[in-house]
Amino acid sequence: MAARPARLALLLAVAVSLACGSSDIQRTESSAAGELAAAARTLEAFHQDRLTRPYVEGAFVNYAEQLATLDQTPLPGDLHARWAAARPAVQRPCLDAGCPWEAQVRALDDAAGAFRQAAGD
Amino acid sequence: MRRREPGSGGPRQVMRDLMDGELLSSDGRSLGRVDDVAAELGDDGILRLVEIVSGPEALAGRVSSRLRPVARRLLGGRLDTRIPLADVEEAGPTIRLRRPADGYRTGRSDRWIAEHLLRWIPGSGR
Amino acid sequence: MRLALGILTAIGGFLDVGALATAGSAGSKFGLGLVWALLLGTACIVLLLLQVGRLTAVSGKPYAAAIREHFGFKFFLLPLSVELLADSIMLAAELGGIAVALSLLTGLSWHLMLPVAPLLVFALVWRGPFTLIENGPALLGLVTLCFVVGAVAVGISSSARLAELLPSPLGGSDLPDYLFLAAAILGAVISPYLVYFYSSGAREEHWTSRSLRTNVLSAVGGMGFGCVTALAVIALAAMVLRPMHVETGTLAELGLTLSAPWGRLGGVLFAASLFTACYGAAVELTLAIPYVVSQGFGWELGENHLPAQAPRFNLVLICFLLVGTTVALAGIDPLQLTLYGSALTAVLLPVSLSPFLVLMNDRDALGERANGRLMNAATIAIIAVAAVVAIVSLPLLIATGGA
Known about the structure:
Helices cover about 75% and strands about 0% of the residues of chain A. Chain A has 5 helices and no strands. Chain A starts with a helix and ends with a helix. Chain B has 4 helices and 7 strands; from the N terminus they run αββββααβββα. The longest helix of chain B is centred in the C-terminal third of the chain and has 12 residues, at about 105-115.
C-alpha cells in the first residue's frame, strides 16, 4: 500500500545516483586541482605580505589533510609525478625568508593544472 | 484560549485538551506533561477520570502497546508521577496544580539531578 | 534590545558555517548561478520565523511545545529524532568551524583547537542570561560586515572581476554538483533549529500579541542582514577564487577572498568573522536541542535560571554538547561535514516543517491571528519546496557524498 510508492522512490533515487554525473576519480582529481591551486595562492600571498604567518600555517594543515587521499589513489604516471613534486610543498611549505618558495608555488601550480586537465575542467 | 462550550457546570474538557498538556505547580514550576490519564469504573457504573500520569513508563505505553509490559518490568512504576484529579486547580493547554513542586515526585527528582549530577560542574548554583 | 534576537538568530542561525561553506563553494564554482537558491531560502526562513514568532507570541507556546500538544507524543518523536540527528552533525561542523578560525589566528592545527571550542560555547550557555547570549554574539557578529565591504571593494576595483560573476553553461558532469549545492544552500539557510531557537527565544522574552511588530523587524531585518552578507560571500568567491580555479574545498581558502582587498588584515577579519558566525550558531544549536526536549517533555526551561533550577534542561544541554564534540573529534574536515549536514537537513525538512500548516490555522490557540489565505498559500509552497529539495537531495547525497 504505502510501501509501493516508497520502494519506487528509493529505486528511483538509487538509479539517478548511479546514472548521474562524474565518476569518483574525476571528482577526486577535480577537488585535488582546487586544493593545489589554493595552496599555491596561499603560499604566494604570504610571500607577497598579504597573509599572516599563523593563517598560512593553519591553512596548510587543512590542505595537507584534503590532499592526503591522493597517496591512496591510483594515479596515472604523469599525475603521480606532478603530485610527488608538489607534495613537499603541501606538507612543508617554506615560510622563511630566502627559501625557494617560488619553486614550490610552481610545482603546486603545475600539479593543479595537470589535475584540472585530467578532470576535464 | 480553549473554546468553551455553552452549558452548565463550566467549560467542558475533551481528552485531547487534557493529554500532553503542560503541568504547572502552584509555585510556577514546570513538572512535565500529561502523558496518560487513569480512569476507574465506579460501583455506580460511571467511568471517572481518577489520576493524571506523567513519566517514562506512561510514554513508553503511548509509543507502542508492546512496550508497555516491558516498561512496567524495567521501571516498575517508580519513575512515574501520579497526580490525583483533585489536585487540578485549572485545566487547559496548561494545567495548574494545587501543590508546590516539592509535593510531586518530578519536583523531587529534579532536586536529585541537581544535587547528585550537576553539582560536579562549577557554577551550577547548588 | 529585542531586535538583538533577530540579529543573533541571523548571525548565529543564518550566517553560520553552513551559509559560509555553501556560499563559498557556490560562488567559486558557479559564479552568481546559485543566488536564486539563497534568495529562495531566505524568503522561506523569513516566512517561517514570522509565523512561529506569531504562534509563540499569541499562544505562549514555543514550536516544540505546540507540536506535542497538537499532535501528541508519538508524532512529536519524529521531528525530535530528525532534529537530534541533523543538529548533532551541524553542531560538530560549527565546533569545527570555531577550531579552524582559531587555527588561522594562532597557526596551530585545528585538531588542537578543537577541544577549546565546546569549552567556549559552554562558558556562555552555562551561566549566561538570555540577554547576554543574544547581545554578545550579535555585537561581535557585526564584524561579518567585512564581507559586504570587501565585495564592494573588489567589485569596484576591476571590471574583469565582475565578469566572473556570470555563471557559465553547465556541463553534464556539473549538474549533480550544482543541484547538490542548491540543496545544501537551502538546507543551510532553512534550518529547523533556527525555528525552534527563535520561538524559544520569543518565549523566554515573554512576547505577547503586542510584540508582533518586533517579530517582523527581527525576522526580516535579521535574516535580511544574513542574506546580504551571504550574497557578498558568493560574490567574493566568484570574483576572487574562480579565476584562481580554487573551489573552496576548505574554509581557509575562503579567506583568500578578503586578502585581495585588505592584505594581511583580510585574513584576520576572515578568521574573526568565521569565529563569530560559528560561535553564535554553536550557542544556538547547543540551546535548541534542550529547548526542544524540555518543551516536548514539559520540563523547566533553563536560560534565565541557575542551572540547578532547571536540572533536566541543563543535563540535556551537557549531553548534547558532548555528542557534538564527539562527532567533531572524528576529525572530518568541517567544510566537508557542513556540506553533508546541510544536505541532510534539506532531506529531512518536510518532517520538521509539516506541522506548520496545521498549527498556524488553529483558531483555538491563535484566534484572529491565525493564518490568512496568503500565508497558508506561502506555507504550502514552502513545504512543497522542501519536499522537492528532499527528493532531489537524497540521490545526490548518495552520489556525490558531499561534493
